[in-house]
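Supplementary Methods, section 5.1.

A reviewer requested that the exact input to the structure prediction be made available. We therefore reproduce it here, unchanged from the version used in the analyses.
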Amino acid sequence: MIEVARVTKKYGGKPVVEDLSFTVRPGIVTGFLGPNGSGKSTTMRMILGLTRPDSGTILVDGVPFAEHRNPLGALGALIEAKAGHPGRSAFRHLEAIAVTAGIGAARVREVLDIVGLGEVAGRRIGGFSLGMTQRLGVAAALLADPSSLMFDEPINGLDPDGIVWMRKMVKMLAAEGRAVLLSSHLMSEMALTADHVVVIGQGRLIADEAVSSLVQRSTSEGVLVRSPQSEELGRLVLSAGGRIVGEPDGSSRVDGLTAAELGDLAAAHGIRLHELVPLRASLEQAYIELTADSVTFRGRETSEPQYSRSGTANAVTMETR
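The structure derived from this sequence is encoded token-by-token as follows.
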């Protein structure tokens, strides 16, 4: 179990992490989410003892990580995949780590097989692809069979088959009773993998709850509609107090009206609908809503067409959320 209690870290007098508390419990996958610059990397470095907090405590199985007699057996971590000498083979890289914890060569070969690198154990890691390097980092995290695991963006560079493998492996590790902290910017993958999420923004806790609970609180439900009379439909939606946004595939998203209300409205005015689908809230939408005021780095982009009150589609420039 990983316990973060009222932790604060400042750089140049500015808080990067501020009064942050959460717990990563055994048996579940906890997603660690937040915009760029939110303090996730600093928090993970503090968990590993690589960065010292200014105040607060961080415990792994009840003890600060650096004070464990067998730290690799307490917490296995993948933070920086490119962390080995490029001239070493995959086997020699892991063997060097294993020796520090009294782990034998048999376990090195075992974890290489677990992550799918057994056949390239003799190859130099400097020639590995990003996906292979990620797998090697996971193997290093598993070496001492730790009770807790922490992965930072573990699916970077993996192909679709590798992503499915990683998802299944992370869930299996949690099912074995381990505490798993998983950081990623891919909300669709997090929704499939995590049971619980911790969301931070500008160094402070925003949410700490089950994925299902977070999604249920989202207000982002809408309706997907497709019609050959999109301009007339756009005017009707606006007059009824709704909002309609055109999508690149020719469909439109309607907010402020239910599917039943929109269908009745179209029928009453003789507008044909080729598609009418209620849209359910997603983890991505819930996350965007939660962190809207915590985004540090913003860009500007042109949104999809929005219907004016005349019913014509206009492109508007808006700040990304």
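The longest helix spans residues 160-175. These observations are discussed further in the main text.
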